[in-house]
C-alpha cells in the first residue's frame, strides 16, 4: 500500500493528512483527465450563419471557439426588427444557434409636412410595406373645414409613402415689418414655419439675426410669434476726430461721422502734413472708432542748431517753426 494510507486516526480510522496526500498525488492527474475529456465535448464551430439581409460586423473566421458570438448588422437600405435577436452564439454541443432574418426593407420614417405631423399613436421603429400611419394638424395649425382630420398614408411596395393631402392651415404671425433704415424679404408668407430675411441700408449695421421664422410661442402656448425677434438697423458713428495744431480737417456729414466715413487733415499755410487720413470703423457693431494715426502739421524750418554751451528758450524737440 501507499505510504499515505498507513497513517490512521485513532478515533475515525483516517487522517486529514491522508486525504491531502491522496489529492496531491492523484489530483493533478484527475484534472488533466477531466479537461481532456471536456475539450472533446466542447466542439468548435465553423463559419457563422449566412443571412440574406444582414452581415457580421467583424470579419468572418473559419473556426470559432465554444461560446464565441457573432453580431450582425443590416445591409444598407434595410432596417432591423428590435424584437428579433441579431447575435449568433457558438454552442459547445449544438453548434450555431438558429438566427432568423431580423432585417427587412421598408419605408423610411414618415416625414411631417409644414402644417401636420405623424400621430404619436402610429410611431414605429420600422415601417414594413403596407404600414399605415395618420397625420394630424400641428399644434399651431388648424384643420381646414371639409377635409379629413386624420388622413392616412401607406408604405408602398417601392418603399415610398403615399402623399399627404392638404388638410391643415398654419396660424399667422403677421407681417414683421421692415426695420427702420432696412428692408425685409418675404420668402413665402407669414404663416407657421414661414421665414423672412432682413437687410439694412448702406452705412447701417444689422443688430440681431438676419432671419426670423414663424414658430409656436412655447410648448404650452399654441400661438405663433417671430423667432428670433426681427433685428434693428443701427448706424454706428465715430466721435469728432482729434484736432491738430496748425491745421484742420474736413469730412463727415452735417457734423456727424458715420461708419466708413473718412476725415482728411489740412495744414495752415507754411506747414506741411505728416501722416494719413482717418477712417471710421467699428469692431463691435455698436461703437465707431477711428482707424489710423492722427497726423501732424510741421513747419518748413527745422529746429535751429545751437552753439556750444547755449540753450533755446521755449519750445521742445517736437516744435516746428513756420517761415
From TrEMBL:
SUPFAM superfamilies: Complement control module/SCR domain. The keyword rRNA-binding does not apply. Residues 301-323 are annotated as: Disordered. The keyword Disulfide bond applies. It holds the Pfam family Sushi. Keywords: Disulfide bond, Glycoprotein, Repeat, Sushi. Residues 43-105, 171-235, 236-299 form the Sushi domain. InterPro entries: Compl-Cell_Adhes-Reg (IPR050350), Sushi/SCR/CCP_sf (IPR035976), Sushi_SCR_CCP_dom (IPR000436). This is Sushi domain-containing protein.
